[in-house]
Amino acid sequence: SGDAPELWNLDYPIRIANHYKSFINAGSDIVLTNSFGANRYRLQLHKLETKVKELNFQAAKILKTEAQVSKKEIIVAGAMGPTGEIFEPTGTLSIDEGVLAFQEQAIALEQGGADVIWIETLSSIEECFAAVEGARITKLPIVLTLSIETNGRTMMGLTPSDIIKMCSEMKTPIFAIGT
């Protein structure tokens, strides 16, 4: 439809619940919330930047409910994707602005019932630091994944070695890292 998929958390919660249920019924023990692009910068593209809290809260709440109904041990992973912005010094978004955006999203995911913050498919050091710093406000375990392209680097040029080094330099412990 061209709409933000996260809007379905409000408009079609039964469809989202059924989607989550399909993962649970298939045997998944970790399911990601429908909140990948639910940060203020991504939602701004759809004029939905004022709905960050509501969309993230609902994404986690719907999944938490399905996990409880299933009576299985399901980890609710609060998904947070990239802002879609280029961070300073190359771009215009400051790390502090990024931290605030990720905090806003992480808090709502936690309040909705997330068990872990799952930061996914980032590609720059600056955005990784902003996302982890923002997520740390929740005290939930943090998983960080980056997207490595066929050339063995992220879009912003990070190698797997750079990623490991970056994680070792973070003040906030990362529970798991992946690509």
In a nutshell, what does this entry contain?
The chain has 179 residues and is of the alpha/beta class.
Description of the molecule:
The chain has 179 residues and is of the alpha/beta class. 45% of the residues lie in helices and 13% in strands. A five-stranded parallel β-sheet has the order 1-2-3-4-5. α6 (125-135) links the parallel β3 and β4.
Relevant terms:
45% helix
What layout of secondary structure does this protein have?
Blueprint: H1 8-11, H2 13-25, E1 30-32, H3 40-44, H4 52-70, E2 75-80, H5 95-112, E3 116-122, H6 125-135, E4 142-146, H7 160-169, E5 176-178
Helix pairs in contact: 2-4, 4-5, 5-6
Count up the helices.
7
Shape field: globular
Largest sheet: 5 strands, parallel
Distance between the termini: 29 Å
